């Protein structure tokens, strides 16, 4: 049970009801920095797309890689039958859960744990803006899911593109290049990116998120920063789990995860 001294209930702050302080505010009176009006760098697929995509089968070919893409309203995007040079590496790879657990010494902050699959990760995937959310000239396709007695179609919600990594690996005297193929989805809270370089497979996950605030008390500094007179943001952790069903050299293989422990030495 949380208890506060009676004196704390009498603390008053001049909290404004105008929420504009929480929004991006570009102050024109400060002027514009030199070159600030220039466009950001962008990738161009010169000479045509370096990948093939079958929208009917949701099938992708990129260099030595092939895979199928599926989608569910609970988990979002799922990758099946991922092969390198015709040999299956993964039968299935997908996100399983994304949680966010908050901290604090009052009920709202201390008891908040979000399990995002409860809200259906796939239904939060919205339309992407070309040139803003992703490079120009990429391949878009729609997602479809059912809700009640209706079929919902979110247009241009998934995309595929190739991008340069920015590393000068192409100067190394091998047959490598420094390009990656990407398959992306962006939800309200989670951004998942599948990397398909020439020789290995990778996944990048980013949680852009937004602030969940709580009422500010003077003794709550260790649980978050004060962002307004009576408002505090709460520290929190993101935990995202994936399922990877590997089929390397057949299906009768096992996986071993070593555990590393820190030991104090005198």
TrEMBL record:
Biological process according to GO: amine metabolic process
Cofactor note: Contains 1 topaquinone per subunit.
Keyword list, A-Z: Copper, Metal-binding, Oxidoreductase, TPQ
Family to which this protein belongs: Belongs to the copper/topaquinone oxidase family.
Claim: Metal-binding is one of the keywords in the record: yes
One GO MF term attached to the UniProt entry: primary methylamine oxidase activity
TM region positions: none
Classification of source organism: Eukaryota, Fungi, Dikarya, Ascomycota, Pezizomycotina
EC number: 1.4.3.-
Organism: Zopfia rhizophila CBS 207.26
Protein modification: Topaquinone (TPQ) is generated by copper-dependent autoxidation of a specific tyrosyl residue.
Gene Ontology CC entries for this record: plasma membrane
Necessary cofactors: Cu cation
Keyword Plastid: no
Highest taxon above the source species: Eukaryota
Coiled-coil features, chain-numbered ranges: none
Pfam families assigned to the protein according to its UniProt record, in alphabetical order: Cu_amine_oxid (PF01179)
Name of the protein described by the UniProt record: Amine oxidase
Domain Copper amine oxidase catalytic: 44-182, 203-262
Family annotation (InterPro entries): Cu_amine_oxidase, Cu_amine_oxidase_C, Cu_amine_oxidase_C_sf
